[in-house]
Amino acid sequence: MYKVRLYQYSVALGLCLAVTGCKAPAAETNTNALSAAVPQDFGTLKSQDTTNTATLQWKEFFKDQNLNELIDTALKNNQELNMTLQEIEIAKNDIRVRKGLLLPTAGIRAGAGVEKVGRYTSQGAGDATTEIKPGVETPDPLGDFTIAAYANWEVDIWKKLRNSKKAAVNRYLATVEGKNFVITNLIAEIADSYYELLALDTQLDIVKQTITLQSNALEIVKVQKQAARATELGVKKFEAEVLTSKSLEFAILQQIKENENKINFLLGRYPQEIKRTHNDFLAMLPAAVNSGIPSQLLMNRPDVKQAELELVAAKLDVKVARAEFYPSLDISAAVGVQAFKPSYLLTMPESLLYSLAGELVAPLINRNAIKAEFSSANARQLQALYNYDKTILNAYLEVSTQLSKIENLQKGYDLKSKQVEALNTSIDVSNDLFKSARVDYFEVLMTQRDALEAKLELVDTKKEQLNAAVHVYRDLGGGWK
């Protein structure tokens, strides 16, 4: 009677403890209320035209065949991109792992052993008086041979395993978007370097033309010195100016070499000459861009989509952590044969073994560790939310900045072109006046120096114009499709 009551009390106590263990804290993070919606326009163009350059493939956006060949090579050989592809493979395998946890685990077990127990124990005394069959006692020591199949299965009552698999799927999709983001930036970086290479080629030509012009002026001042119309000071000043321009020529050559090596690195190959267009660089026009509307960034920008998927995965992680507070149901089963001699293994039904058990386990003592993991999951979810907001804000500001830059660069380029045109005219005028000794050599030097600086700046402005169009294409989310 007492044993029955004790058993009943034990069951009741166990149920109470299980219910206590099932209590999980309420969610600490509300991610349903995201940041404010993005503005209706980019602040520079008050247009609701949804035509978006990001929908163009990069082969359609870039018209230079040499540049397209470089990009195509990079997409095959770039090491960073190939490393990102391996991250996708890792994430894909993680899905397989999570999916496997939903299914029972099964295996075959075979074993052999021997056991010798003391005669003056309950088991030893029992074995000494037990007969396998009349006249045959239990052998001592006792062997143990087993061949059995077994299975274990955790029943996913609270969707813990399914949510874990869903989180892995979202992280896999996030790595795919991460790969797309790498592609977008890789294409933009190659285009930037390519246009910079074209700009350096043009600047090198300008410097060489300037050296020729300065050398001609040097010969004139030498003749004037012989005619006592100029001094040694003027000769040395012109010589110094020629040497300065020649040193600038070698500096540009070094920059060209460094830029070629940078492109080769992005292409995953050893140094070689970069095939490029040698047309009039200043006559090149930036690609036309249509920014669309800001809300399209949510669909086109890979980094925004990646942050969104990571946020979804973080939400699922919270559900998984919450499920740790609830009891888990494990079912195990086994079937096979077992005997103390191998010859008895096929003796049925005496050697047959089987088992079936269900186990309900609820956390009681170690709840603090589970609470800590749940709090960490909530913190990671909040962190993912902030990252999502930051990514959207950064995307909007990048596009807004580049659109404004395109507009201002065009105005600056127009003014700089007029400045170069005026200085080219002033060079011809100053040379004519210098030949007739109507102006000092110093005015000729300053005019040539100002013209050189203005021409180099004009080339830089053209390069920035071309790169700004590339950056808008990148910031809108173009290039990966």
From TrEMBL:
Cross-referenced PROSITE patterns: PROKAR_LIPOPROTEIN
Membrane topology field: Lipid-anchor
Highest rank taxon of the organism: Bacteria
Localization (cell): Cell membrane
Cell membrane keyword on record: no
InterPro entries with a match to the protein in the record: MdtP/NodT-like, OMP_efflux
Recorded coiled-coil stretches: none
Signal sequence interval, chain numbering: 1-26
Annotated keywords: Lipoprotein, Membrane, Palmitate, Signal, Transmembrane, Transmembrane beta strand
Gene3D superfamilies: Outer membrane efflux proteins (OEP)
Family: Belongs to the outer membrane factor (OMF) (TC 1.B.17) family.
UniProt-listed NCBIfam families: outer_NodT
Protein name per UniProt: TolC family protein
Organism annotation: Flavobacterium hungaricum
